[in-house]
Design brief:
The protein contains 19 helices and 22 strands. The protein is an alpha/beta fold. One of its GO terms (molecular function) is tRNA binding.
């Protein structure tokens, strides 16, 4: 169940009034069975099953929250009734009356999968291709009023209509053959907007974002996929700026930076129309990123937009980075006072290695997840694991997301820190312990397996790395204590060093080592060079 499977046109398991054309195949994913022609005229990507599963889970929880306000209770197949347990041993009369009142106000209307709900969500898939995602919405997400599956290709639109009929969801799913942007612009009216808009283009979604932030309803949900990771990860900063209004830079934190770039772009486009975004979940997986944001209207809140964005100062030598907010806001009684930001937060050269800084951004500098919402999605998926084929992977990603530090943008990687000063990579657990013993917060990141998110300043991180390398040039007592927390050097390594001491051929002295060619050399002139940044770090 819920696995991707391909059958021939002689598939006997599916009973439908729609007959298969010669050479057609049936692709099964989740509860949907999608017809595909023999020629590759309509795009299908089986790798993104995780993306579609996660989207179904997020929209289900979004529908549960939104429809509860409209007096509708959603029912998910295979999901057990959620029981709220009171931790107090005694309940007074007021509590009992409150519970009875809440029980009396429970929604009388229920919404199940595959049925049309008059007060349900209106969903648009702007770039539907075969319509697989939309068919899965109709079959697996309860509380839907309508699903519009749009594609500019006439062949794709015809296939969407056939797939809707083949799966028996024609009463919910309507095929559309229009330009996605024009369709969304046509639905900008308050009463015509969609509750959920899903955009999963082949490449960049930048040309659809302006229409999307206008066509989504108040408090509605935008689900955006970006597959142009090369642009957003720093390979082409000027192209990234032209598409998203942000300069990407090559760095180890490029995957999270890509998430924050698309959130910045969405917020900037929404601010033009006095709207603002609230990120629910942002994930970087494989070769793409996926963000889920709610869009609201509010002129007063839009004024906070500048203070939510930040520029990045990234050292080209050691990789240390600093963020500079674009604006300031502070509370002045009942009102907020706004002012221009002051900076920069760094000098002309890096204080740790003496190299220059790259300037990137602006990026979204606020939290990229709504942890209470993520916890609800995680609880629903873990409580009903048979619902999705990729449930285990969803649980793993969301569990990591719930443990991430909310207010710490970007991250370091221990392998890049070790590479900078040419030493062995410290165990991730011990490096985290060192930061915790030093009094800083620390967590991992779902975007990179070797990532460390911490509120420790770069100086503290390099202190720990110098202690790990155990250089004689370093005598910071605080960091030496941290080094003891790292466990010191293992006895095996000490024995190995004694065994091979003075056994190397053509030994190089420290003075020669400082002028040794390195990829981090900074050329001053054709005949003059400066020592590489790693020695500047070690000599501090």
């Amino acid at each position: 169940m819920d696995s991707v499977d391909t059958d021939t046109a002689s598939d006997k398991d599916k009973t439908s009034a729609v007959g298969l054309l010669p050479g057609e195949t049936v692709v099964k994913e989740g509860k949907a069975a999608i017809l595909f022609p023999s020629a590759n005229v309509v795009f299908y990507n089986p790798v993104q099953e995780f993306n579609r599963d996660l989207t179904c889970a997020v929209i289900t929880e979004f529908a549960r929250e939104l429809l509860a306000q409209r007096g509708v209770k959603v029912v998910v197949p295979g999901e057990t009734e959620r029981v709220v347990v009171s931790l107090s041993e005694e309940m007074n009369e007021a509590d009992v009356k409150t519970e009875e009142k809440n029980g009396a106000e429970e929604p009388a209307v229920t919404a199940t999968v595959g049925e049309k709900c008059e007060h349900g969500l209106r969903v648009l898939e702007g770039l539907a291709a075969s319509g697989l995602r939309s068919v899965r919405f109709a079959l697996e997400v309860p509380g839907l009023q309508s699903v519009t599956a749009n594609d500019f290709s006439t062949k794709a639109a015809a296939l969407i209509a056939r797939n809707a009929q083949y799966n028996g969801v024609s009463h919910l799913l309507q095929a559309s053959c229009k330009d996605a942007s024009m369709l969304m612009y046509e639905m900008r009216g308050k009463n015509a907007r969609y509750d959920v808009i899903d955009l999963d283009p082949y490449g960049s979604p930048s040309c659809f974002l302006d229409a999307a932030v206008q066509a989504v309803s108040e408090g509605g949900l935008l689900c955006i996929t970006c597959t142009d990771m090369a642009v957003m990860a720093g390979n082409s900063g000027e192209t990234c700026y032209s598409k998203y209004g942000s300069v990407s830079i090559k760095s180890r934190y490029c995957h999270e930076m890509a998430l924050r770039i698309i959130l910045h772009s969405l917020d900037q486009r929404a601010a033009v129309y006095q709207r603002y975004i609230q990120p629910l979940l942002s994930v970087s997986v494989d070769f793409y990123i996926r963000v889920f944001v709610r869009v609201f209207t509010g002129q007063a809140t839009v004024k906070n937009s500048a203070s939510k964005q930040a520029l990045i100062y990234n050292c080209v030598g050691c990789g240390s980075f600093h963020l500079q907010r674009m604006g300031k806001r502070r509370s002045n009684g009942k009102n907020m006072k706004y002012s221009a930001a002051t900076g920069p937060p760094v000098g002309p050269e890096c204080e740790h290695c003496g190299q220059s800084h790259q300037l990137g951004g602006p990026i979204w500098a606020e939290p990229i997840h709504d942890l209470p919402f993520v916890q609800k999605v995680l609880s629903a998926v873990s409580g009903n694991p048979s619902r999705f084929g990729t449930s285990k992977r969803i649980e793993g990603v969301l569990s990591m997301v719930t443990e991430e530090l909310e207010d710490v943008p970007l991250y370091y990687t221990v392998d890049s820190l070790s590479s900078t000063i040419h030493c062995n990579t410290p165990p991730l657990l011990q490096f985290r312990s060192a930061l915790l013993h030093a009094g800083y917060s620390v967590s991992l990141s779902h975007a990179c397996k070797n990532a460390i998110k911490t509120d420790a300043p770069p100086a503290a991180i390099w202190d720990i790395m110098r202690c790990w390398r155990h250089t004689p040039a370093f005598y910071n007592p605080t960091a030496q204590l941290i080094y003891l927390n790292l466990g010191g050097i293992s006895t095996d390594l000490q024995d190995k060093r004694k065994k091979f001491q003075n056994k190397r051929k053509n030994q190089v002295t420290d003075s020669q080592l400082k002028s040794f060619p390195c990829k981090r050399f900074k050329e001053v002139s054709p005949t003059t060079t400066l020592p590489c940044c790693c020695f500047s770090l070690l000599e501090k």
